[in-house]
Amino acid sequence: MTSETKWLNSEESAAWVRLVALAELLPGALDTQLLRDAGLTHFEYGALMAIADAPDRTMRMTELASRTNATLPRLSHVARRLEERGLIRRFPCPEDRRATNATITDAGMQLIAEAAPGHVATVRETVLDALTPEQLEQLYAIAGAVLTRLDPDSRLTATSCQFSEGPILAHAG
Amino acid sequence: MTSETKWLNSEESAAWVRLVALAELLPGALDTQLLRDAGLTHFEYGALMAIADAPDRTMRMTELASRTNATLPRLSHVARRLEERGLIRRFPCPEDRRATNATITDAGMQLIAEAAPGHVATVRETVLDALTPEQLEQLYAIAGAVLTRLDPDSRLTATSCQFSEGPILAHAG
DNA sequence: CCACTTCAGTTGTTGCGTCAACTATTGCGG
DNA sequence: CCGCAATAGTTGACGCAACAACTGAAGTGG
Questions:
Q1: Nearest to A19 by CA among B65, B118, B158, B112
Q2: pLDDT tens string A46-59
Q3: What is the third-level CATH fold of B20-171?
Q4: Where are the alpha helices (DSSP H) in B9-161?
Q5: Within 10 A of A96 (CB to CB), how many other CB atoms are there?
Q6: CA dist A60 to A48, A69, A77, Å?
Q7: Which bases of chain C are contacted by protein, using any atom under 7 A from a CB?
Q8: What is the mean pLDDT of residues B88-116?
Q9: A11-171 domain in CATH 1.10.10.10?
């Protein structure tokens, strides 16, 4: 069973090292900007955006977890903090009393409306502006291929879909 | 100064969402496998590999931080834990008494030698095997372009180089 | 050769994520 | 309709990372 390990060749190694560095540095860069300018982590921002984009500005915790690539315990902790800050409200789901619904408050809407332009600018500056249109397509395909491996059952939303990063908020202030 | 925000179009948004999901999920996947099979985080594994690959199996903390995309405080904590586990040793640098050198021990070498095959297999399964050779090249270029934005001064090593993921360890047991 | 700045690294605190354990509700098989 | 498994979510403990503050050594200008 000791099948000889096939080590990485130089092309594989170089690409891998860069991907790892990217995965290591990108989250921190996003958090830094958003925390500085809006007092939100990138994860909190994404969660608020997902709720804001949902019908009635309301979403169940499990679906929110799926949209934000998070575990339920993690989301529960974050939701408690967001609720304490008055950015969301939680209440039991009437149809299924096991479930919890989360609604974004007006304060929450206002905060992400204020935060969105700066965040989008950061996304452009650090990523999108560095890529050609072809590379953008390539990135889409490459990330999609890897996500299929990381999330084989497509339990998470990103593999096939997206939470809106965009114009929804243009008229949300 | 309120330059109208240029929101993301659907191609940009789709690629961005996938990149974020990738950056969110990949580190966890690497940690899970390495912690399960070797009791090491991916960061610890990378640090040990970097030291193992250095002349005399010895490297200064600052250079190690640069190679592992880490801040010095983070690395210092990790180094303390690795030293407590007997995987590295630290001693003051003779030439510059401010500096600290870290050497990987035989136990450390043995541990990464045992861990490497499983890790490389995971890297192949979750990333490399999902990509065509062209996509591997594209990934290299894309990640390089983004890293230039994330690390404009090329303070970190990954932008231009790599720590070896490979055959060095084949004869390191 | 003395003050001042910069560099290298460590340490303590604080906050977040993970994991395991737990509660409560729902669905399902007999 | 009763027992059991599965689902939805919360909670507490623990570990790691970020940040700031600190020590001490090395360079630098006067």
A1: B158
A2: 999 999 999 999 99
A3: Arc Repressor Mutant, subunit A (1.10.10)
A4: 10-38, 42-52, 61-67, 72-84, 106-126, 133-150
A5: 10
A6: 13, 14, 15
A7: 7-12, 16-21, 24-27
A8: 97
A9: yes
Domain ranges of chain B: 20-171
Please report the pLDDT score of residue A2 as a whole number.
67
Give the pLDDT band (50/70/90) at residue B3: confident
Q: How far apart are CA A154 and CA B98, in angstroms?
A: 51
Which tokens in the block code for residue B122? Answer: 């995971």
Cβ–Cβ contact A121 with B under 8 A: yes
Using the CA of A78, give the nucleotide whose C1' is nearest. Answer: C16
- CA dist B7 and A95 (Å) reads 36
SS3 content of chain A, % helix, strand, coil (to 5): 65, 10, 30
Q: Which amino acid is at A10?
A: S
Phi and psi, residue B126, nearest 5°:
-90, -20
B positions 12-71 inside 8 Å of A (CB): 12-27, 29, 42, 46, 69
